[in-house]
Amino acid sequence: MSHTNQTLGEFIIENQSSFKYTSGELSRLINSIRLAAKVVNHDVNKAGLVDIIGAAGEVNVQGENQQKLDVYANKKFIQTLINRNIVCGIASEEEDDFIAINSQDENHQNKYVVLIDPLDGSSNIDVNVSVGTIFSIYRRVTPVGTAVTLEDFLQPGNQQVAAGYVIYGTSTMLVYTTGAGVNGFTLNPAIGTFYLSHPNMRFPEDGKIYSVNEGNYSHFPQGVKNYIKYCQMEEGDRPYTSRYIGSMVSDIHRNMIKGGIFMYPKSSKDSNGKLRLLYECNPMAFIAEQAYGKASDGFGRILDIQPTSLHERAPFFCGSKNMVEKVEEFMRNSMS
Ligand code: AHG
Ligand code: MN
Ligand code: MN
What we know:
Elements lengths: L7 H8 L9 H21 L9 E5 L5 E3 H16 L5 E4 L6 E2 L11 E9 L10 E9 L10 H4 L8 E7 L3 E6 L4 E7 L4 E6 L10 E3 L10 H11 L8 E2 L5 H11 L1 E5 L12 H14 L3 E3 L19 E4 L1 H15 L1
Parallel strand pairs: 3-5, 11-12, 11-13
Antiparallel strand pairs: 1-2, 3-4, 5-6, 6-7, 7-8, 8-9, 9-10, 13-15, 14-15
This protein binds 2,5-anhydro-1,6-di-O-phosphono-D-glucitol and manganese (II) ion (2 copies).
2,5-anhydro-1,6-di-O-phosphono-D-glucitol binds next to strand 5.
């Protein structure tokens, strides 16, 4: 098959014209994410070898321990995007506030802002389990040539122009969408090139895998509890299989290939769950929809939520369309 020979670089150039804004700026932006992904991949791969693993001793804005590789990946992505002078603003899960770039220079023409979760699933680093990077790209809403403001970042997910993730797994892949389907590229580490290995990725409409941290079961809303019991019931094609890695990127990536649902509901401890709307839910929701799947907060579309703050969280149900619709049905029914 010829597509297996196509590199990510070639793919970006070939598909540039099909993108509705054809300035080439978005292509350059995805290219720089590709570069940063390779750099971070190199360090994730040797995490067990060097003194880079373990907590960095600092706590991020969400109050979680930052792992050293979180800090490193955050720095690398931000540096690459700043050095290449490609975006006008960056927001990161690991930074308290957004970063305005070239805010002093009236001539800068950059139109895009990037939001990143530089390392997703970071607690898995110490135990040699897959982690990821998630990115989300918007056009700024304030005028070009001025400093970006919070407004540029607080856009609903349905305004994303591109989103993607890198998975540092048994092989490293970059999967992304610009709103015209989802394509996956696998890194050949010997030569440092990503090749198109998974064209037109699609969630199967139905699935048999459910992914949720069942340790939190007793704190879940009744609708989620009922749905989990439904998954476990002996009937038709059930019981389903439970798989939970604890790296959302890896869990969703597997479910996209095999068919399944990933859930991080709210609980009696966390009224909006744990996952961050801007850095985690929205980009994965955009990818899911572009791959014929679905993403919901249990009652409605994730991509239609109007964010009100940079680090806000949302309950998250993402995966095969029929499975997400089923859990929504259980949520609705348990309300009445
Ligand atoms: P991060 O490493 O960016 O903080 O994200 C971790 C997230 C997500 O990847 C994963 O699915 C979830 O946290 C796991 O949380 P629990 O340990 O609470 O299940
Ligand atoms: Mn994360
Ligand atoms: Mn993270």
